[in-house]
Amino acid sequence: MNQSFIPTTDSVDKLIQEFNKLPGIGPKSAQRLAFHMLRASDEQAKLLADAILSVKQKTRLCSICFNVTESNPCPLCRNEQRDHSKICIVEQPQDILALEHTKIYSGLYHVLHGAISPTEGVGTDDIRIRELLQRLEGGAVTEVILATNTNLEGEQTALYLSKLIAPLGIKVTRLAQGLPFGTELEYADDVTLTHALEGRQEF
Ligand SMILES: [Zn+2]
């Protein structure tokens, strides 16, 4: 019997610990994932490891909208078919995925990479607000859609941005209708998001 097939508990423990650091993965799930990988073929394990590494090695942030991309500017910013007069502001890149999934928005995006949160020490300079204002300076944008989460931090951020942007003569709207308070955009379903986009109101 090939003893080397039996892994040391150290390496299994290490894998469990690493899975446990992932968001939404508790100790039980981490254990289940680690033992799943133990049973998986070498090929499957390599595919997963390679996918994780290539996400780190090949992706960067778009220099215009700060979405995650493999080419700069990202395909959304480069796409001339999209409406370049609208910018939808989101907290995280995964929010773009949720909104794109509804297929009803054809404008551009801007990823803040967070929300203003005094309690967590996130100030206005810690998220991509300065870069947003630079984008708006060109005068080509006529509407900014605030699609930050509907929790306290998201609302504070939306309010702060509307006060900055409205004086520039740009229409500011907020995704709110149909989105209950406390909603994180990435977890909202398509129907709710579609209603929220279509029913966006001036903020
Ligand atoms: Zn972009």
3D architecture notes:
With 203 residues, the chain is of the alpha/beta class. It is built from eight helices and seven strands, in the order αααββαβαβαβαβαβ. Helices cover 43% and strands 13% of the residues. The strands form two sheets. A five-stranded mixed sheet has the order 4-3-5-6-7. The structure holds zinc ion. Zinc ion (ZN) binds next to helix 4. Residues 62, 64-65, 67, 73-74, 76-77 line the site of zinc ion (ZN).
Can you give me a brief rundown of this structure?
Helix content is 43%, strand content 13%. The protein has 203 residues and is of the alpha/beta class. The protein starts with 8 loop residues before the first helix and ends with a strand.
Chart the SSEs and their pairings.
Blueprint: H1 9-20, H2 27-39, H3 42-58, E1 60-61, E2 68-69, H4 75-78, E3 83-90, H5 93-102, E4 107-111, H6 129-136, E5 143-146, H7 152-165, E6 171-174, H8 190-198, E7 201-202
Parallel strand pairs: 3-4, 3-5, 5-6
Antiparallel strand pairs: 1-2, 6-7
Helix pairs in contact: 1-2, 5-8
The chain binds zinc ion (ZN).
Helix content: 40-55%
- Content-based structural category: alpha/beta
Largest β-sheet summary: 5 strands, mixed
Count of distinct strands = 7
Q: What is the H-and-E element order?
A: HHHEEHEHEHEHEHE
Q: State the distance separating the first and last CA atoms.
A: 70 Å
Order of strands across the main sheet: 4-3-5-6-7
The low-confidence runs, each spanning 5 or more residues with pLDDT under 50, are 1-5
